[in-house]
Design goal:
GO terms for molecular function: RNA binding. The protein is 23% helix and 38% strand. It contains two helices and six strands. Strands 2-3-1-6 form a four-stranded antiparallel β-sheet. Strands 4-5 form a two-stranded antiparallel ribbon. It is globular, with a radius of gyration of 12 Å.
């Protein structure tokens, strides 16, 4: 089973591959994506990482508050759409 993690406070230039690589050092990453503005195509500073269920809690504990390319990440379990912004 896969769980989705929200990752906030990302540097604007972060690519999905870089995000996946950072998390892959701590567990199995299934996928990653960076959320961009529809009109400008610019990163909105957050994204999502899909990880194996058994790795999710450990990844949150290890990556939340960790510095990534000069910024301190906010990592928690993503909420399904409609449960509020993160």
């Amino acid at each position: 089973m896969v769980r989705t993690l929200y990752v906030g406070n990302l540097p604007w230039a972060t690519k999905p591959e870089e995000l996946a690589e950072a998390f892959a050092a701590h567990g199995k990453v299934v996928g990653s994506r960076i959320i961009t503005d529809r009109e400008t195509g610019r990163s909105r500073g957050f994204g999502f990482v899909e990880v194996e269920d058994e790795d999710a809690d450990r990844l949150i504990a290890e990556m939340n508050g960790k510095e990534f390319n000069g910024r301190v990440l906010t990592v928690n379990e993503a909420k399904p759409r409609g449960e509020g912004a993160q």
